[in-house]
Amino acid sequence: MIQKKVDKTMKWITFIILVIFFSQVTTGQGEFEKKNSIYLELAGSGGFGSINFEQIFFKKNITELSWRAGLSFAPIDKNNGTGIVFPLMINALLGKNSHKLEMGLGQGITVTTRGSAFALTTAVLGYRFQPSTKRWFWRVSYTPLISYLVDFQIQHWGGVSVGYTFKNKVK
């Protein structure tokens, strides 16, 4: 039964990754400022801390959609050792000017040093301050971790981040 749930989870993760990559090909309508960001997140979706890459792939009016991928290390327990965590998420940024509401959903894939693997659903609901004239930004967010493979549990969690945006014009 657990293997079926892991297989189903991996199918969803593969689907999300394919959607992200195909969206890169299909967003060539018009011209917008494509933004790639890198940021450090203390606590949050990657556990105790993570480094993340984010790319905006859609922008219209006050809505921006982005995907992000991160890397983190976290101690699990004696039996599993240390976990290498890969948070993968799709986010929506809503708002004008510098102040944005950030919402997102994804998977936190963990592979341990002792050979086991598991996934947690990650979510984000937060505030992002990113002036359009500046490249630096910060964010604070509620990031619950949701476990569903063996039993359903929600770990209430939060995070703060500081990041830098690289800007490239795309046609």
Write up what this structure looks like.
By secondary structure, this protein is mostly beta strands. The protein has one domain. The protein is 15% helix and 62% strand. It is built from 1 helix and 10 strands, in the order H-E-E-E-E-E-E-E-E-E-E. It has one helix at residues 2-26; strands at 32-43, 49-60, 63-77, 81-94, 99-112, 117-129, 136-142, 145-147, 153-155, 158-170. An 8-stranded antiparallel β-barrel has the order 1-2-3-4-5-6-7-10. A hairpin with a 4-residue loop joins strand 5 and strand 6. The longest helix has 25 residues, at 2-26. The radius of gyration is 17 Å and the shape is elongated. The model is unreliable at 24-29 (pLDDT under 50).
Number of helices: 1
* Radius of gyration, in angstroms, nearest whole number: 17 Å
**Roughly what fraction of the amino acids lie in strands?**
over 45%
From N to C, what is the helix and strand string? Answer: HEEEEEEEEEE
- So what's the overall shape? elongated
Distance, first to last CA? 48 Å
Q: Report the average pLDDT across residues.
A: 84
Spans where pLDDT lies below 50 across 5 or more residues = 24-29
Characterize the biggest β-sheet: 8 strands, antiparallel, barrel
Helix-and-strand structural type: mainly beta
How many β-strand runs? 10
Strand order of the largest sheet: 1-2-3-4-5-6-7-10
The domain tally reads 1
